[in-house]
Amino acid sequence: LGKLVAFYDDNGISIDGHVEGWFTDDTAARFEAYGWHVVRGVDGHDADAITRAIEQARAVTDKPSLLMCKTVIGFGSPNKAGTHDSHGAPLGDAEVAASREQLGWKYPPFDIPADIYTAWDAKAAGTQKESAWSEAFAAYAKAYPELAAEFKRRTVGDLPANWQADAQKFIDDLQANPAKIASRKASQNALEAYGKLLPEFLGGSADLAPSNLTIWSGSVSLDKDPAGNYIHYGVREFGMTAIANGLALYGGFLPYTATFLMFVEYARNAVRMAALMKIRSIYVYTHDSIGLGEDGPTHQPVEQMASLRVTPNMSTWRPADQVETAVAWKYAIERKDGPTALILSRQNLAQQTRTAQQLADVAKGAYVLKDSDGQPDLILIATGSEVELAVAAYDVLSAQGHKVRVVSMPSTDAFDKQDAAYREAVLPKAVSARVAIEAGIADYWYKYVGLNGAIVGMTSFGESAPAEKLFEVFGFTVDNVVDVARSLLRQG
Question: Under a CB-based contact definition with an 8 Å cutoff, are residues 451 and 432 in contact?
Fold first, then answer.
């Protein structure tokens, strides 16, 4: 990846995400103890001093370099330099004039002096370098046409020619061979299948690889082989996500990272930036609910799914079984206009039966999984581990004579992108009796059930107890779903 040169001002520094305090000689010594090359005492307002420091750093080729540049906020402003007044507000016309005088700047706004423009003008040099690179690549392509074509494919983000057919065959085979496994394990199986097709995969986990199940048979750790494809990030959720953002922006790689869903909180600002910049990155978030059990409310996510869902440009999937998980991975891999979060269970999930049409509709984000004869009187909407619960409640309610539909909704944003006709076919406006079932914050689901609908969800943080006990205490049982549904039907 080349040589790392880090710049910091005198506000502070961080090592591995931990704030280390103000710049001092002791701090520099600690960096040196960590194996860094440190250039001290650089005047951050002197271009020549910075140039000399960079050259010193470039001369050291066996370690990263830290350039300690002393700067003053609002430099040049005679009355506001070194104060918060130069941070969040304009200097004002009078202070701008005073700053120009103090800095000796005699040019009008947006007028760049010729000597400065010439010094920074890299058009000719850039054209020469681009021409030389293109000539070298043309020679490489002539000698190694297959490798050159693969390089081009990966750098533009295209998928292999056989991708669609092979990925769909994997999904079809899963549907034909049911398995009751956790969706985190189904995710690992998807990685195993898709990883063999996608050499651009570059995975990693925040010290939770054995729990996130993000290592597949082709994974090679970078600490064992620089040409590897898996990074053990350590407990650095933010650093991990930010690094993946950089890899995605650089191109040629399709990064995926992993941690518990709860710990998206530590990565949140990098996740938001990925969505803001529409970065193609995949986030694997396992242990998705109070089903985490005895680890307790500190580790049990409640509001995190809603937070991800309302983040612009983020696609969020919570699959119900191994088939929906494979579809979610395929969707994430094919998506080029933003990051995708895969929300996966710790506990095993029963596979649902599907027709060919239902299987095709999974990628639309929501589809009718179970239905009644004719127009339903009640719709049960569920995601992830709660789809199995909705189907069980459907069986009871149907046996009692109610006309019920079950909608599996693994991705609300994918469903929202469908045309009005499809959305109406899945959630007809005429059916106002709706119950959403998800082991996450309840309030999000009023968007789909309406103010008169009902939600079996979380309205508090979790507790520490076995998962089965927690689902019972918080109402994720067939009896409670049936009671909620029947109460809603009586009101109608």
Answer: no
The pLDDT of residue 1 is above 60: no
Residue with tokens 């694997």: 284
CA-based nearest residue to 243, from 188, 281, 284, 199: 281
Count of beta carbons in the 10 Å neighbourhood of residue 287: 26
Q: Which helix (H) or strand (E) holds 172?
A: helix 163-176
User: Active-site residue 20, yes or no?
Assistant: no
Alpha helices in 196-321 (DSSP H): 209-212, 237-250, 264-276, 304-309
DSSP structure class, residue 159: P
**Strand, coil or helix: 260:** strand
Give 19's strand partners. 14
Segments in 321-465 forming alpha helices (H): 322-334, 356-361, 386-399, 412-416, 420-426, 446-449
- Note whether 314 and 339 are within 8 A (CB): yes
With 0-12 CB in 10 A as exposed, 13-18 as middle and 19+ as buried, what is 400? exposed
CA gap 488, 452 in Å, rounded: 9
Helices 183-195 and 322-334, axial angle in degrees (round to 10) = 50
Structure tokens at 485: 């549904």
The contacts found for 14-19 with CB under 8 angstroms, 24 or more apart, are: 16/234, 16/236, 16/239, 17/236, 17/238, 17/239
Q: Cβ(76)–Cβ(103) under 8 Å? A: yes
Angle between helix 322-334 and helix 163-176 axes, rounded to 10 deg: 170
Check: CB of residue 202 under 8 Å from CB of residue 243. Answer: no
pTM value? 0.89
- Give the integer Cα–Cα distance in Å for 363 and 94: 59
Q: Which of 237, 324, 388, 438 is catalytic?
A: 237
Q: Are 148 and 154 in contact (CB under 8 A)?
A: no
Q: CA 43, CA 49: separation in Å to the nearest integer?
A: 6
Report CA 238 to chain centroid distance, whole Å. 11
For the four alpha carbons of 177, 178, 180 and 182, in that order, the dihedral sign comes to positive
Distance of CA 202 to the CA centre of its chain: 14
Bridge partners of residue 349, in order along the sequence: 181
Residue 123: both structure tokens together: 């058009």
Q: What DSSP character marks residue 81?
A: T
Question: What are the two backbone dihedrals, phi and then psi, of residue 107, each rounded to the nearest 5 degrees?
Answer: -105, 150
pLDDT tens digits for range 312-337: 999 999 999 999 999 999 999 999 99
Instruction: State the Cα–Cα distance between residues 166 and 171, nearest whole angstrom.
Output: 9
Q: Which tens digits make up the pLDDT trace of 347-406?
A: 999 999 999 999 999 999 999 999 999 999 999 999 999 999 999 999 999 999 999 999
Q: Does residue 335 contact residue 280 with C-beta atoms inside 8 Å?
A: yes
